[in-house]
Automatic annotation (TrEMBL), chains A, B:
Every FAD-binding PCMH-type domain range: 1-138
Full protein name: FAD/FMN-containing dehydrogenase
Pfam families: FAD-oxidase_C, FAD_binding_4
Cofactor: FAD
Gene3D superfamilies: 3.30.465.10, 3.30.70.2190, 3.30.70.2740, Vanillyl-alcohol Oxidase, Chain A, domain 4
Taxonomic superkingdom: Bacteria
UniProt GO molecular function: catalytic activity; FAD binding
PROSITE patterns: FAD_PCMH (PS51387)
Record-stated family: Belongs to the FAD-binding oxidoreductase/transferase type 4 family.
Naturally occurring in which organism (per UniProt): Actinophytocola algeriensis
GO biological process, one term: respiratory electron transport chain
Keywords: FAD, Flavoprotein
Length: 383, 383
């Protein structure tokens, strides 16, 4: 987003849209920055393989953006973030030189691994023009469960049980508060259970073996849960996933959404939820906590909606104050105030209160080293 | 290794040997740099979990060294290198400041991911004093196969077949030439087959599910192989692994070993083996090619032994010339001249012929930025 100076330009890479190579034996694909994520997924699928990055915007977002933001999404638990899926990069540096680092290698210990500087740098260190990405074996079996839980503690225990038994089969573990699900149910979705429950989890297992009995593995791991539904087929699985995927949109009908995207260690999640919830309820009695997220990664989208019947403007005006409560709590548990969403311009100042000074200094030094004239996405990430 | 100036010191971190924390629910362990790798493995095992880094020196090598060299080993195919197993670092910078980056988070998009600069930097940018490492569910089933193959092409095809079926269960795929295995057999090991075969593979599947029928999965994937043995139990599996693990030592009895550690894209492995073998045989008629390695990662330990009956000194004297043949071939396939072993001092000059100038420049700039006085492991990695 350019500032108001009239001296900034936006660089579109959407014409860099070539898939340069797909190498099934090496499990790699080489793509230009403007290729749409869904097209990479489709190319992999066409070769019987999987490109696992998956997120709501996959039909329009591009690989260059996924790299610049180190995108996460729904399968990080098993496959990692975009950083973990990248073997090599081609980059135009701020001084105009091109670094051809498009290596398709899983091991290369010949000096500093510089590509990681550019992934997640939000375009502030150079322009990524192409990348070599890793592919995985295609998925041929899937099981989906919708689980009712008494507490976040029970959810953390359940993750441990499912991981211990299912191992790498566990690709998705999403937690949702009743409040979050209630918003979605108001849009006409059906509640899989007769009674309301305080917390829900969406759990998915996948496998490369077509005859893998994932339902039995899921069922065996389900101790300590209040209730559970196993999807009988793809349609029911999609309906269960819809309850999770509909939260963000459903929240928009409830007044302003104050959104936060944090990670804490998974073990600290129950205490974080309790501590932060109490602080927010004290600050705004009646506040609705739309707590949900990729809990298998320790990542919560900790969103807030106003108390029913109160005014939009008054609630929105308290955004900074309430964010501060969420971020202070996150920091007290050793967490991150931006798990997936980056710093951009809105958090470039805020992060200075939460990151060690040494690290902020190093970031600034790296920025000035690579981009001394400050040409690349000025005003973002580093100050 | 210090130079002859008498002005360099070696810093030992072996007294930094505390395991600071083990968090089973978060699947993380926080350890100091002097902790021995086997002790980390044991601590994880004690919690029913797995720390997957595994290599020959695990009984004596330390986590600090594993991080400084971005260690690989036998399970990279599934779990990645040390870089992929690291969530956070604590580092003493060359200017004496301590960066506490010991975050135990799987997602954190709040600026540049600086830890990757230090992993694999061989101590040239600072001193790593502690790390947060990721743990995985414990392994409860294992299947091991020893396979005879007609060619590297058949090996590459087999990797594809096994991965497609077994997915993440495939943790090890090692390829060996007959020459490599013959050296081991001379030490009294038993050949699992009656007839010699030109190539062999060691394939291992693992699973978290104790009753997983991995033998059937392995058997189903074994098309296009000349012969195969499935280990009937742990003792036979250990014997088969011994054939692979004994190569390096067995080669020492055959005169000087000229060792190379390269990666190429897996798809290029057959052409690389053919091309490089022909060039070496032309340079040294009768040369023995001890070709083996972690082929599931595209990584070959491409070692050379002298022709039988020829002199040690004359062969050793040609080390640079023969390395150049191997490295030129590697580069022509887009490979790396050091997959696991780093640059150290022996390859710091050599790499200048194989890495893009832009990248070498960036490495030098980063070194001068962080360590302007050149205090950290001087003369190594960058010039």
């Amino acid at each position: 987003m350019p500032d108001d100076s009239g001296t900034q330009v936006v660089l579109s890479l959407t014409r860099l849209r070539r898939i340069r190579a797909l190498d099934p034996a090496n499990h790699t694909i080489t793509v230009e920055a403007g290729v749409v994520l869904a097209d990479v997924q489709a190319a992999a699928r066409g070769a019987g393989l999987l490109f696992p990055l998956s997120l709501g915007a996959e039909g329009s977002c591009t690989i260059g953006g996924n790299l610049a933001t180190n995108a996460g999404g729904t399968a990080v638990l098993r496959y990692g973030t975009m950083r973990d899926l990248t073997l090599g990069l081609e980059i135009v540096l701020p001084d105009g030189r091109v670094w051809d680092g498009l290596r398709a290698l899983r091991k290369d210990n010949t000096g500093y691994d510089l590509k990681h500087l550019f992934i997640g740098a939000e375009g502030t260190l150079g322009v990524i023009t192409a990348a070599v990405l890793t592919l995985f074996p295609g998925i041929r079996a899937r099981a989906t469960a919708w689980v009712a839980l008494p507490s976040p503690r029970a959810a953390v225990d359940l993750i441990g049980q499912v991981r211990a038994l299912a191992g790498d089969r566990l690709t998705t573990f999403e937690l949702m508060s009743r409040q979050a699900v209630e918003f979605v149910l108001r849009n006409g979705n059906r509640d899989p259970f007769r009674e309301p429950h305080p917390w829900y989890a969406l759990v998915e297992l996948t496998d490369t073996l077509p005859d893998s009995d994932l339902d039995s593995v899921l069922a065996a791991a389900m101790t300590g849960v209040t209730d559970a539904v196993l999807a009988a087929g793809p349609a029911q699985a999609a309906a269960l996933r819809g309850l999770r995927e509909g939260i963000s949109e459903a929240q928009n009908h409830e007044g302003p959404s104050l959104k936060h995207d944090v990670t804490v260690p998974i073990s600290d999640l129950p205490a974080f939820v309790e501590h932060t919830g109490a602080a927010l309820r004290k600050a705004v009695p009646g506040i609705r906590l739309v707590t949900y997220g990729h809990v298998g990664d320790g990542n919560l989208h900790y969103n807030l909606s106003k108390p029913p019947g109160s005014g939009d403007a008054a609630f929105a005006a308290r955004a900074d104050e309430l964010a501060r409560i969420v971020y202070d709590a996150t920091a007290s548990f050793g967490g991150s105030i931006s798990a997936e969403h980056g710093l951009g311009q809105s958090k470039t100042e805020t992060i200075r209160d939460y990151k060690p000074t040494v690290e902020l200094d190093l970031m600034g030094q790296v920025k000035r080293l690579l981009d001394p004239a400050g040409l690349m996405n000025p005003g973002k990430v580093v100050t």
